[in-house]
Amino acid sequence: MPMADGADKEKRTVKGKIMTYLVTGAAGFIGAAVAKRLTGDNEVVTIDNLSTGREDNIPPGVEFLKGSVADADLIRRLSDRKFDAVIHIAGQSSGEISFEDPVYDLQTNYQSTVLLLDLARKTGCKKFIYASTMSVYGDHNPPICSEDATLVPKSFYAVGKAASENYMRIYSEQFGIACTALRLFNIYGIGQNMDNLKQGMASIYLAMALSDHKINVKGSKDRFRDFVYIDEAADAFIKALGREEGYDVFNVCTGKATTVEQIINIIKENLPYDVEVQYSEGTPGDQFGIYGNYDKISKALGWKPQIGFETGMKRMIEWAVKDHR
Amino acid sequence: MPMADGADKEKRTVKGKIMTYLVTGAAGFIGAAVAKRLTGDNEVVTIDNLSTGREDNIPPGVEFLKGSVADADLIRRLSDRKFDAVIHIAGQSSGEISFEDPVYDLQTNYQSTVLLLDLARKTGCKKFIYASTMSVYGDHNPPICSEDATLVPKSFYAVGKAASENYMRIYSEQFGIACTALRLFNIYGIGQNMDNLKQGMASIYLAMALSDHKINVKGSKDRFRDFVYIDEAADAFIKALGREEGYDVFNVCTGKATTVEQIINIIKENLPYDVEVQYSEGTPGDQFGIYGNYDKISKALGWKPQIGFETGMKRMIEWAVKDHR
Q1: Cα angle A82, A88, A90; round to 5
Q2: Residue whose C-alpha is closest to residue B76's, from B20, B110, B122, B22
Q3: Which of B80, B102, B84, B318 minimizes the C-alpha distance to B206?
Q4: Which of A80, A113, B110, B288 has the most CB within a 10 Å radius?
Q5: A300: buried, middle or exposed (CB in 10 Å: 19+, 13-18, 0-12)?
Q6: CB nearest B174 (choices: A114, A160, A284)
Q7: Global pTM?
Q8: Interfacial A residues in 183-242 facing B (CB < 8 Å)
């Protein structure tokens, strides 16, 4: 979708609502869902290195630049574009992999943020929305976290995300960019990558159950997370586009804890065959249990989760059974 | 100083106290002072890219590898070496420059730490000491900071340093490396780079006074800092080598605040000619005023500052007048 200068300008004038967005990582689970919500009347550009995403995930009508968000030369090539907002979702997203390759992790999760914030500054883009993570909290006691909790990140992945939040705060203060960090809790649902066994607790267990009729749980069955259905997570990004100034950070969560055991039971109950469950040692930097308080995003942006985990998980299982067996 | 295998082993056995240290940044002000304290019976290797340091700063007997600490290939070349400790001091050290080139800043200050921690892990090195900074605190109210204060870094430089501290904490917890972060307040004294007008408050003013008989102050004269004489800062690194396990962080400070105006008065009083003072706009991310509490390092490592700012500054002025006019 290259810009035809005259035509594009006219369209912009006539309709008055055409926006141009850079959404990184639109070949991935969350990026694709957000990009899909923005296409239509808007122009959407994405960068994705297809390391875990797939090109056919990218919604129709999205301009695709294949490459890494940590590649300074690639980002520089965008410096003659004018974006109404940058929505930065791309990045290595596995705590486990951040231990295997910490440098790759920091480049995709931290250097990329710096490059994109700098692009925003230099091109006059005034909105920046970032996919942060509940991992920044680390192990928290009590396990329910509000945004003002102390951050004690346990994985390198989480350190990079917390550093990115700090970068956004400074870019906002110094250069007047409205920056929003969304601390995503566990996002799951239709469209999740069922081939990636290092990212996404519910999708990992489901993928194992489907392919081997056996789930290997790394760590305790009593661990728990706060699961947010993908459509509602995408909605949080859309609502964050309404923020016009300053830096702020919001939990994207449901306020409900679901244990590993509960996830496995839902999977077992919804598959027509027996599923064996094995337990092995946990992965480094894994949090034991965490869930979030969503009061802040509810008040500021009117975002509220409505899809319960069992409902969402049944949808996902149905989809996965049909498409991925 | 290449290792002659047999000879070296023998020396090690006979004397029993020969250690091998990697000290990054030994061409710079602080790195050179620390490396100097370690040479003698020990083997000291340094990496420095000479971006702000000078080769003739490197103490005699130190093995010098020219290159960047953020260069993965260079660090990999050290993977057959066995270090008793890594002391990581190299890095872009100007908050101001971190705004001009945030990517260079993050690579030297953050990627380098990850690469070196990973080298330590892979080579079985069990001690890692890091030059962090008081900048991690940001503006703090009240302005005296203990180590448990909340971190609100104002410059990208400080964000990278805070992230590095988190990396060290995780490497310590996960891989049993004794990691020590020293939050250096303003280090000054003989040997400081008098040509670098973007780093080192006292040295910048002194250098301007010497070269132009005019000091251009970027920001308020009421700003204040906590100044630590270089020899005492180097001593904190040596004392930190005594730590055998876990992660910890220590202020390296004097507990005394000195204002910009006081610094300038000391410089004026100790120069034989008039010095004009001009004020202009501050630099982004500059903290207003901060000083530190050194109780923790005093109790844990027996480190205590003894050289007052006026005493140290007179020494520095005398040295600078003689060598750098």
Answers
A1: 125
A2: B122
A3: B318
A4: A113
A5: middle
A6: A284
A7: 0.88
A8: none
Q: Please tell me the distance from the alpha carbon of residue B205 to that of residue B229, in angstroms, as a whole number.
A: 16
Q: How far apart are CA B147 and CA B134, in angstroms?
A: 10
Closest CA to A103 of A144, A160, A177: A160
Report ipTM for this prediction.
0.84
Q: Exposed/middle/buried for B6, CB within 10 Å: 0-12, 13-18, 19+? A: exposed
Asked if A110 and B106 come within 8 Å (Cβ–Cβ), the reply is: yes
The two structure tokens encoding residue A150: 């102390």
The CATH number of domain A5-192+226-255+291-308, selected from 3.30.260.10, 3.10.50.30, 2.60.40.60, 3.40.50.720: 3.40.50.720
Q: Which of A106, A115, A170 sits opposite B154 (nearest CB)?
A: A170
Domain ranges of chain B: 18-192+226-255+289-305
| Interatomic CA distance for residues B45 and B23, integer angstroms | 6
Query: In degrees rounded to 5, what are phi and psi of residue B13?
Result: -70, -50
List the structure tokens of A182.
């969304």
The minimal CB distance from B159 to the residues A111, A150, A163 is found for A163
Report the gap between the CA of A120 and the closest CA in chain B (Å). 14
B18-192+226-255+289-305 placed in CATH 3.40.50.360? no
Edge-first strand listing for the sheet containing B63-66: B63-66, B43-48, B20-24, B85-88, B127-133, B178-184, B247-252
Question: Which DSSP symbol is given to B289?
Answer: B
Chain B neighbors of A92, CB-CB under 8 A: none
Per-residue pLDDT of chain A (325 residues; tens, 9 = 90+): 444 444 444 333 334 458 999 999 999 999 999 999 999 889 999 999 998 899 999 999 999 999 999 999 999 999 999 999 999 999 888 878 888 888 888 888 889 999 999 999 999 999 999 999 999 999 888 899 999 999 999 999 999 999 999 999 999 999 999 999 999 999 999 999 888 887 788 999 999 999 999 999 999 999 999 999 999 999 999 999 999 999 999 999 999 999 999 999 999 999 999 999 999 988 887 889 999 999 999 999 999 999 999 999 999 999 999 976 4
What residue of A is the nearest CA neighbor of B153? A166
> Is the CB of residue A153 less than 8 Å away from at least one CB of chain B?
yes
